[in-house]
Amino acid sequence: MHRVFVAAVALLSGAASTVHASEFDPLLGYTGPQLYQRFCASCHGRQAYGDGPVAPSLKVMVPDLTRIARRQPGGEFPEQRIREIVDGRAVLPAHGLRDMPVWGYELEAQAPPDQPGRAAAQSLIDKLVAYLRSIQQ
Ligand code: HEC
Question: In the chain, what are the domain boundaries?
Answer without folding.
Answer: 2-134
